[in-house]
Amino acid sequence: MSKDVVLYLASILSAYAILGLIVYVPGLITAASPLLLTGIVIVVIVVLLFAAAIILKALSQLLGSFRP
Length: 68
Hints:
- Keywords: Membrane, Transmembrane, Transmembrane helix.
- By secondary structure, the chain is mainly α.
- It has one domain.
- 84% of the residues lie in helices and 0% in strands.
- The chain is elongated and about 60 Å long.
């Protein structure tokens, strides 16, 4: 596994853990400050952008290998 993939998987797991806490712990969403919720949303967006970058990089390498 490359270093990027390990970092990506760790960030995905941490995003799922944060979102799981919000969904499954009763009252956490009402007790959390708006700044915390904004930070969580930003983390999720960054993780998704990072995932898109890794996927696009892999696709470009894959498509580049088909050139004659």
